[in-house]
Design brief:
With 256 residues, this protein is mainly alpha-helical. The chain has helices at residues 29-34, 75-85, 104-110, 112-118, 138-150, 161-174, 178-188, 197-206, 210-219, 223-230, 233-241, 243-253; strands spanning 91-95, 98-102, 130-133.
Length: 256
């Protein structure tokens, strides 16, 4: 049976994900079986859907006035001040002739390696509470501390950013700080070029940075870039430091 179309004027209603009619509006099975709607063990459901493409602004519900403004989180700033003022510091790190005061609980919360070194079986430090860090530059450790307290990196001169990121990636891997490590990976991807690809690829291979390694191999996917590497001293360095990468490069060179 064809019914004539009809128009119904309604207001616009915004439905919530938690709003629904619920099972109370369902027809009971016994009532359905007794009704005229069930024929040959089947019935038809008609659904009319209206999609509103345009509506008036006055039809929309008004936003609730904001009587209270919530300030953005400033936890990072408070922790940065804690690091800067050294208030309550209970451990001192000696790195490259410089000393840095810090808080054991903060570092332990941010790094399982710090936690083991400061509280666990790997506990380090002399009777004065001084922990010596070898094979790391002072500025790199300072940036590592900044990230541990604020979850962000200090501002670095643009021309020094790639070198700092390389050193920080090594430090992040050493202290198992995965977020810092991936940030360094992401930034180093922007610095891949003919002069740096060997160093960055070696770094990626030695510290298990798959994303950074793929970015380097993508750069070397260009025949010109790959040929330049194969003809350079960097290839010999790569052969000695990361022989496993050579298989990838040989396979790529066969396609050039």
């Amino acid at each position: 049976m064809n019914l004539p179309p009809s128009l119904v004027s309604t207001t616009v209603h915004t439905y919530s994900g938690l709003l629904g009619w619920g099972p109370i509006s369902f027809m009971k099975r016994a009532d359905l079986e007794k009704s005229e709607h069930l024929k040959d063990d089947s019935f038809t459901i008609r659904c009319d859907i209206l999609v509103i493409m345009d509506y008036r602004a006055e039809d929309l519900p008004e936003d609730t006035p904001a009587f209270v403004t919530v300030a953005p989180s400033d936890l990072h700033q408070h922790l940065a001040d804690l690091l800067k003022t050294e208030k309550g510091a209970d451990v001192v790190f000696e790195v490259g002739g410089h000393t840095f005061a810090a808080h054991r609980c903060v570092l332990a919360a941010r790094s399982l390696v710090f936690s083991a070194e400061l509280f666990g079986g790997m506990k380090e430090g002399d009777t004065a509470g001084v922990v010596r860090i070898d094979e790391m530059e002072a500025q790199v450790f300072k940036a590592l501390l900044c990230f541990a307290y604020t979850d962000s990196l200090p501002v670095t001169e643009k021309e020094d950013e790639d070198v700092m990121c390389q050193h920080l990636l090594v430090a992040a891997d050493r202290y198992n700080m995965e977020r810092l490590k991936t940030i360094c990976e992401e930034r180093l991807c922007k610095y891949i070029n003919g002069g740096s690809v060997t160093t960055i690829l070696t770094l990626a291979e030695q510290h298990h940075c798959e994303g950074l390694k793929k970015a380097c191999l993508s750069f070397l996917g260009s025949p010109a870039n790959l040929r330049a590497l194969l003809d350079s001293d960097g290839f010999d360095h790569l052969s000695r430091s990361c022989p496993s990468v050579i298989k990838n490069l040989i396979a790529m060179s066969a396609l050039v």
